[in-house]
Q: What sequence folds into this?
């Protein structure tokens, strides 16, 4: 790939606030790990890497009122983001042209765990309820500086920030944006300190990655963001690159929810993919910043992966976690900043606290070493085997890298760039010639408030007049054995059942990517853990509840159960969690990185959380029905035969030598499966943050134009009105302004509202297109019900009044 | 001892959420991990919590579990010798 420029970066961690302090500490081998000071917990026995400021001190530095609703994760994020924007010379006026992608898993848990009993029993602190959402932390961080064009949140546990970097890079390579700020933030919470303790992987001594005596990790906290920018944009703005992003890889270990495979399959694949994408050989790598948590399992597995890839010549390796502690979701971007500082200053960060070589392991850098570096790898691995690796290069790097895949400009960028680039120019294509970059929806399956795994609702929908309803579940025996089911909450079984059924109907044994959206993940287990923490204290907590509480549990479970080592990520960003997942798939299909994707939208709800969310004004207002859903959709580039397996990055990385032919055959077989009849085509997708009416109109016009359509070709508009009177009124008014007298449809009155119910919207529209009719129950105005055969449906989802997704489907 | 074994089986079923299983389904001499019941490292951690909660036995290192959790019978024997409640 053509390298992407990094034109700014910012970092806060236990070793310092900002790049200067960070570099000084790294060069001086000064760790920030020490006795616990800021977090209120009884577990004083564990050393931690805390950022050395109270929340109040952070507010003061940021100029935020002490009484403002904030979370520690958002505050640390703001400090790092400010530094990154400043270095890249991005002012608030420029942000409407910039994307912001952040990774976090704890979100607002630092506040939720303090106020949980208040959330349940009183009105106190209810203003913090909405702040629990990971997406809310991202938006709080972003909004401190202005109005970004687009925001979303990756939540793949400890690889979240690395995956944010990957998404940002894909966005730029697609020509969707020229500047994207990416990274992650995570504070230490009592919740995950106790969670890691229940897994017995915390060390009471300073952590010693890759040491024979290593005995677990130390938790840390912090945030870091990188400004990714296209070369053209940087040149135009006259900003200089600090480093280059020249490759990246994401793979799933698909082994176990909390343990890495002995052979480090996911890690090996992620690093290999990064090298392939960069067009580099293993011998080109000068340094690896390992994930290196200090747990016996991770360091053994990662060592194996590195030795598999590099053989006898493993480059210098160190884990910098003894400096900062394990900063979990933020580690991918914090350590990427460390790598860039190492590239810029020519040194190898030391693996502190190491003294004895482990059996069958690598020997890390243990002495300060000056060394000119060209290319470095930075690893970040998460629970569930969500493994990612990014390849960073010095700006001065000389040639060598063959550019395997150039930047693909497949369609005009979002219209918010149009004042910079005239329409069409950015895509290098004539704006008048219609583009057909559609992908096929091969199958769509749901478990929700309607009859599960069928389309019976189209004939006889189940009606609800209750404020909160649970999903109607099928028997799960066919999908999971009783012993497998022991650690699966309802949501996991539902996700597995819809995923397996969707893949079966699509006629695929495997997919190139599993991409999942979930607002709150396994709410039931999170609730159990919070209950125990709040009522019984910080002892004897159940590890099962903790490990299921991370959002990416669902996506990795599907990978484990279907033995899928492909791309795997999870989005957790309020009402656009599913839309973010769909967008990721859409971009990667456009880029040719993948040919097929399983996109899921999964959320469950408990009685307790329903009441909390209602109290917090998040959900369940007026006539809104809170529901639960699992929806799985298989997308495929498909119809046309694949020209060559080299066409596809995924095929290229999975197949080498003689395997190339097998891969080619596999792709052809999949494409020619006569039983695969697509439900419909997806021919346009846009996700916008706080768009104005003009932005919306422009984006709808350009989306239709790219698909060779006009508004006259659209038969129906499917809206996400939910029964929340205030929202619905404005929503419908806007819809009428945008779409005139087009028949408006709704689905949430039948399927309920959840963070990922827009996935059900896609399912409903796709099934209507397949059936060639729209059930009368879907019309917003029953009097307007008509039997016009749908050939083109536009989904217009507006969530929490801020984020809008537009999806164009054609029969 | 038989009573302890029976109670322990009930507690294991509850702690590990072994839906549809009854104490009768578990052979107290069969291996809990691997070939037998097919439990894994997370179940071992759950059993550590179970022992602390119900019998006041604290294990510091998950590796200790390997011997103790060989079978329900071995576990019951260990509990009888080391219980503090």
A:
């Amino acid at each position: 790939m053509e390298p992407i420029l990094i034109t700014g970066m910012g970092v806060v961690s236990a070793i310092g606030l900002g790049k200067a302090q960070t570099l000084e500490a790294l060069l001086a081998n000064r760790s920030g790990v020490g006795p616990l000071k800021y977090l209120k917990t009884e577990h004083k026995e564990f050393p931690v890497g805390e950022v050395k400021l109270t929340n109040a001190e952070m507010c003061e530095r940021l100029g935020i009122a002490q009484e403002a609703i904030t979370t520690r994760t958002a505050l640390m994020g703001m400090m790092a983001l400010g530094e990154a924007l400043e270095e890249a010379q991005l002012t608030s006026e420029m942000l409407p042209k910039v994307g912001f992608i952040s990774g976090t898993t704890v979100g607002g848990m630092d506040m939720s765990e303090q106020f949980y009993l208040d959330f349940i029993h009183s009105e106190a602190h209810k203003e913090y309820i909405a702040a629990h959402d990971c997406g809310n932390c991202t938006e709080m961080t972003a909004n401190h500086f202005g109005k970004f064009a687009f925001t979303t949140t990756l939540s793949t546990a400890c690889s979240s920030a690395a995956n944010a970097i990957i998404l940002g890079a894909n966005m730029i390579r697609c020509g969707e944006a020229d500047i994207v700020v990416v990274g992650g933030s995570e504070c230490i919470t009592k919740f995950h300190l106790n969670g890691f303790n229940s897994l017995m992987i915390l060390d009471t001594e300073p952590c010693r990655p890759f040491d024979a005596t290593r005995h677990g990790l130390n938790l840390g906290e912090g945030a870091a963001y990188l400004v990714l920018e296209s070369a053209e944009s940087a040149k135009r703005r006259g900003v200089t690159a600090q480093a280059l992003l020249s490759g990246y890889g994401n793979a799933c270990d698909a082994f176990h929810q909390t343990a890495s495979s002995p052979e480090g399959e996911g890690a090996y694949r992620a690093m290999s993919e990064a090298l392939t994408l960069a067009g580099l050989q293993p011998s080109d790598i000068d340094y690896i910043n390992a994930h290196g948590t200090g747990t016996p399992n991770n360091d053994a597995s990662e060592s194996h992966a590195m030795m598999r890839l590099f053989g006898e010549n493993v480059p210098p390796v160190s884990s910098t976690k003894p400096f900062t502690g394990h900063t979990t979701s933020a580690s991918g971007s914090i350590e990427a900043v460390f790598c860039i500082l190492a590239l810029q200053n020519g040194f190898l960060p030391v693996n502190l606290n190491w003294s004895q070589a482990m059996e069958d392991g690598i020997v890390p850098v243990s002495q300060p070493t000056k060394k000119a570096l060209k290319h470095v790898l930075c690893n970040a691995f998460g629970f569930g085997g969500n493994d990612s690796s990014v390849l960073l290069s010095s700006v001065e790097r000389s040639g060598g890298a063959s550019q395997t895949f150039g930047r693909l400009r497949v369609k005009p960028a979002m219209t918010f760039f149009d004042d910079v680039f005239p329409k069409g120019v950015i895509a290098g294509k004539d704006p008048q010639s219609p583009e057909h970059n559609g992908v096929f929806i091969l199958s769509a399956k749901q478990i929700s408030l309607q009859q599960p795994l069928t389309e019976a609702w189209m004939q006889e929908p189940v009606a609800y007049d209750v404020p909160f309803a649970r999903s109607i579940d099928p028997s799960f025996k066919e999908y999971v054995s009783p012993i497998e089911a022991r650690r699966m909450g309802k949501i996991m079984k539902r996700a597995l059942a819809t995923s397996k059924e969707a893949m079966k109907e699509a006629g695929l044994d495997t997919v190139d990517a599993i991409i999942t959206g979930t607002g709150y993940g396994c709410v039931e287990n999170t609730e159990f853990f919070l209950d125990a923490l709040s009522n019984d204290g910080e002892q004897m907590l159940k590890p099962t509840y903790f490990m299921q509480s991370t959002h990416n549990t669902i996506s990795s479970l599907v990978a484990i159960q279907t033995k899928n080592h492909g791309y795997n990520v999870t989005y957790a960003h309020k009402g656009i969690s599913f839309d973010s997942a769909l967008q990721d798939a859409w971009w990667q299909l456009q880029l040719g990185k993948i040919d097929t994707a399983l996109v899921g939208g999964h959320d469950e709800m408990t009685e307790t959380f329903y009441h909390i969310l209602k109290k917090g004004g998040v959900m369940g207002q007026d006539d809104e029905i809170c529901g639960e859903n699992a929806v799985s959709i298989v997308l495929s580039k498909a119809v046309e035969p694949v020209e060559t397996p080299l066409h596809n990055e995924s095929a290229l990385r999975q197949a080498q030598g003689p395997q190339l032919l097998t891969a080619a055959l596999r792709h052809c077989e999949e494409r020619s499966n006569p039983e695969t009849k697509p439900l419909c085509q997806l021919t346009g997708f846009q996700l916008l943050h706080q768009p104005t009416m003009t932005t919306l109109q422009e984006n709808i016009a350009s989306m239709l134009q790219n698909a060779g359509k006009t508004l006259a070709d659209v038969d129906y508009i499917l809206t996400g009105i939910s029964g929340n009177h205030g929202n619905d009124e404005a929503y419908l008014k806007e819809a009428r302004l945008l779409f005139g007298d087009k028949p408006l449809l709704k689905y949430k009155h039948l399927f309920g509202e959840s963070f990922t119910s827009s996935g059900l919207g896609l399912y409903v529209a796709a099934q209507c297109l397949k059936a060639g009719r729209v059930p009368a129950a879907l019309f917003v105005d029953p009097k307007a019900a008509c039997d016009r055969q749908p050939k083109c449906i536009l989904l217009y989802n507006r969530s929490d009044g801020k984020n809008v997704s537009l999806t164009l489907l054609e029969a | 001892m038989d009573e302890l074994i029976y109670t322990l089986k009930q507690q294991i079923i509850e702690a590990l959420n072994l839906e549809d299983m009854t104490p009768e389904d578990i052979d107290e001499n069969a291996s809990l991990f691997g070939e037998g019941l097919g439990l894994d490292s997370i179940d071992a951690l759950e059993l550590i919590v179970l022992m602390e909660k119900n019998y006041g036995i604290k294990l510091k290192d998950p590796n200790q579990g390997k011997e103790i959790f060989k079978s329900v019978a071995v576990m019951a024997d260990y509990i009888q010798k080391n219980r503090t409640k």
